[in-house]
Amino acid sequence: MDSSRYIAKHVINLPKSGIRDFFEIVSKMKDVISLGIGEPDFDTPWHIREAAIYALEKGKTHYTSNLGLIELRRAISKYVEANFSISYRPEDEILVTVGVSEALDIAFRALVNPGDKVMFHQPCYVSYSPSITLVHGEAIPVPTYAKDNFALTAEALRAAWQPGAKLLVLNLPCNPTGGTCDRAQIEAIAKFAVEKDLLVLSDEIYSELTFEGVHTSIASLPGMKERVIFLHGFSKAFAMTGWRIGYACGPAALIEAMMKVHQYSMMCASILSQEAAIEALVRGEDAMKSMRDQYHRRRDFIVRRFNEIGLKCHLPRGSFYAFPDVSVTGLNEKDFAVGLLQTEKVAMVPGTAFGANGSGFCRACFATSYEQLIEASNRIERHVQSLAKKK
Amino acid sequence: MKPIVKLLLESGSLNTAQLAQVLNLSEADVNRQLDELKAQRVLLGFRPVLNLAHEDSGVVRAVIEVRITPERGGGFNRLAERISRFDEVESCFLMSGSYDLLVFVNGGSLQRVAAFVSEKLSTLEGVLSTATHFMLRSYKEQGFLLDVKQEEAERLKVAP
Question: Are residues A379 and A311 part of one domain?
Answer without folding.
Answer: yes
